[in-house]
Design a protein that fits this description.
Blueprint lengths: L1 H12 L1 H13 L15 E6 L16 H13 L4 E5 L18 H22 L4 E7 L1 H14 L10 E7 L60 E4 L14 H12 L5 H26 L1 E4 L2 E4 L5 H9 L8 H20 L1 H21 L7 H6 L3 H6 L8 H15 L2
Parallel strand pairs: 1-2, 1-3, 3-4, 4-5
Antiparallel strand pairs: 6-7
Helix pairs in contact: 2-4, 3-13, 4-5, 6-8, 7-8, 7-9, 9-10
């Protein structure tokens, strides 16, 4: 759709800004040194656990949580070729998830991403001949996906030819309708690691049933030079990575919640109210400046983006908010709009009412899934689906992939 394409382009343009911000945050310190040795492995795997499954004091090499069931067998199978560790971060959701830290989800993801970028650079600096694989689940997958997007776009902390594989499970930024290998419909066998023949990897298949919808926080950004080496595994009905289409307000609510302090009811209400008010104000500024045409005695609501997209973007902490100058321009423009309408209410008001009514109808259509009982029934067991990636064997092919990569890299 035109709106989706516009959002993808806009999201892509902020990758450079995100990377620069990440570098600044990384320079401030806070990340633990990556445990490497003895010696440099052919493949080093960095794991990023999901919400509630890590902490700033977590043991970097302890195989716990969902990812532990995937990575422990790899080092057992090829101990001389592979080393791995985990990113120790808050893994929080505003203090509401047991085991998670007090930080809002968005801040927790940013911390994981910054540490991941630092860790990858450390591995390459200490072991120039080593290639990196990244594996992540849920909240961790969002951090790893952002890292992979930056590397694939050429603005990451390491070059693309140092990445052997990226495995994402229950990825909240999964692209709408994405196949298992984003950008490669129908592909089931991963591309070889750079500099290898791919002989061992050619025997591996990453097969996952198609999942509808997209990640609850998707920006639509792809993986550039890493396409073919990024697997995005999502179970249909897992709300984190398979959120329904036509549910714009659900995505808006998720973005608000991701930034909120949810530790107790009072702080949660205050935090959500402040964030929602800010998002609505930002959306108003953007709409006034971009979607209303005024001049020559005429006023038209001619949206460049749908209202639902404006609301979602305004609540997204990854997209820069309007500046004070933007707000001032919107206030001046609003005065011009009201003065123009006051000069010709009979000629302008009926037309504007019709245009705004159409926009309202479109907003309702963009949320039609939320009034569909069948949609709610489909997501009735979303928690079990989200938590079941290890139990249902979804990680097994990932273990085989990493093991095969190690064999290919070891035989270079």
């Amino acid at each position: 759709m035109t709106t989706s394409m516009t959002r993808r382009v806009r999201a892509t343009t902020i990758l450079l800004a995100l990377s620069a911000a990440s570098a600044l945050a990384t320079a401030a310190g806070g990340a633990q040194a990556v445990p490497i040795g003895p010696g440099c492995p052919a493949l080093y795997v960095l794991g990023v656990q999901g919400t509630g499954q890590s902490s700033p004091a977590a043991d970097l090499v302890a195989d716990t949580g969902v990812l532990g069931t995937m990575l422990a067998p790899v080092t057992t199978a090829v101990p001389g070729l592979v080393q791995h560790s985990y990113i120790a971060y808050g893994a929080g959701f505003g203090g509401i998830v047991p085991g998670g830290g007090p930080d809002p989800y968005a801040a927790s993801v940013a911390d994981a991403h910054n540490q991941l970028a630092t860790a990858a650079a450390q591995v390459i600096e200490q072991c120039p001949g080593t290639l990196i694989a990244g594996v992540a689940y849920s909240q961790g997958a969002q951090a790893l996906a952002q890292f992979a997007q930056e590397v694939g776009a050429g603005v990451g902390s390491v070059p693309a030819d140092k990445i052997a594989a990226i495995a994402l499970y229950s990825n909240p930024v999964r692209i709408e309708g994405s196949p298992t290998f984003p950008g490669r419909p129908g592909q089931t066998v991963p591309d070889p690691a750079p500099g290898t023949s791919g002989a061992a990897v050619s025997s591996v298949q990453i097969i996952s049933a198609a999942a509808a919808g997209s990640g609850i926080a998707s920006t639509g950004v792809g993986y550039g030079a890493l396409e073919g080496r990024v697997a995005d595994v999502c179970v249909d009905g897992d709300l984190a990575c398979s959120a329904p289409d036509q549910a714009a307000l659900l995505r808006l609510g998720a973005e608000i919640a991701a930034q909120a302090n949810l530790a107790d009811p009072i702080s949660a209400v205050a935090s959500i109210n402040a964030l929602l008010s800010q998002a609505l104000g930002d959306a108003w500024t953007i709409v006034i400046n971009n979607d209303i045409q005024v001049g020559g005695g005429n006023v038209d609501y001619a949206p460049q983006q749908l209202l639902s997209a404006r609301l979602i973007d305004a609540a997204d902490p990854r997209i820069p908010a309007p500046t004070p100058e933007d707000a001032g321009a919107a206030a001046a423009r609003w005065n011009e709009i009201t003065a123009t309408i006051a000069g010709n209410p009979v000629g302008l008001l009926p037309k504007l009412v019709g245009q705004l009514s159409a926009a309202w109808a479109q907003l309702l259509a963009d949320n039609a899934a939320l009034t569909n009982p069948g949609v709610w029934l489909h997501f009735a067991d979303t928690v079990a689906r989200h938590n079941g990636y290890a139990a249902t064997g979804q990680l097994t092919s990932g273990t085989a992939w990493l093991t095969a990569l190690a064999h290919d890299l070891g035989s270079r």
